[in-house]
Design goal:
189 residues, alpha/beta, Rossmann fold, six-stranded parallel β-sheet, two-stranded antiparallel sheet
Length: 189
């Protein structure tokens, strides 16, 4: 990775997007290693992790990950997921964190040199443009190696740099290969 020497870096991780992309590629993230990868690339100012939570559940499968991230250097941004029924009466859950991520990028823009956005969502193209106009270099991390690709072409083209998750796999894959998803994040402690 090419980052400015001693450049101030911030990570903005769309949790649901990263989880889905890594699952599609067949690996689980070691979040401790992910921090090390970017700490070694410059001065890591902040690592945000965004996710919606279902509050009605007594136990949420994502709760161990959220707690681990919170105690290990990540800034958690959460909000309650909303449940609704679609036209056919099926229960659906919605928890979009795009606005929160966008606001945080713009609020931190004066304090960082490089923003790394872990998402392939094309809605972030204009955010990337806005951050660039403020002098921030932007890297997008997602994947082209899935079918279909999980990164919007317009987002990838707007970014200063694109990193395919598959290219980071060796540096941030959980070594146990259990396939148990993010629930075993504590096993690497």
């Amino acid at each position: 990775m090419i980052f400015q020497e001693n450049g101030r870096i911030a990570l903005f991780i769309d949790g649901a997007n990263l989880y889905t992309a890594c699952r599609t590629l067949g690996f689980d993230v070691d979040y401790k290693q992910l921090l090390k990868v970017f700490t070694s690339a410059g001065r890591l100012i902040r690592a945000y992790y965004y996710t919606a939570l279902i509050e009605d559940l007594e136990f949420s499968s994502i709760r161990p990950l959220i707690d681990w991230l919170d105690y290990n250097g990540y800034t958690l941004v959460t909000k309650p997921a909303k449940e609704f029924k679609d036209d056919s009466g099926r229960k659906k859950i919605k928890g979009n964190m795009d606005i929160e991520l966008a606001v945080d990028v713009l609020e931190l823009a004066d304090h960082i040199d490089h923003a790394v956005i872990f998402s392939g969502d094309g809605d972030f193209r204009y955010l990337v443009d806005a951050a660039q106009r403020r002098g921030v270099r932007v890297t997008v991390v997602s994947t082209l190696k899935s079918q279909p690709p999980m990164v919007a072409d317009e987002l990838r083209r707007q970014a200063d740099m694109f990193i395919d998750l598959d290219d980071l796999r060796k540096e941030m894959e959980r070594p146990d290969g259990s396939g148990a998803g993010t629930l075993n994040v504590l096993a690497n402690e």
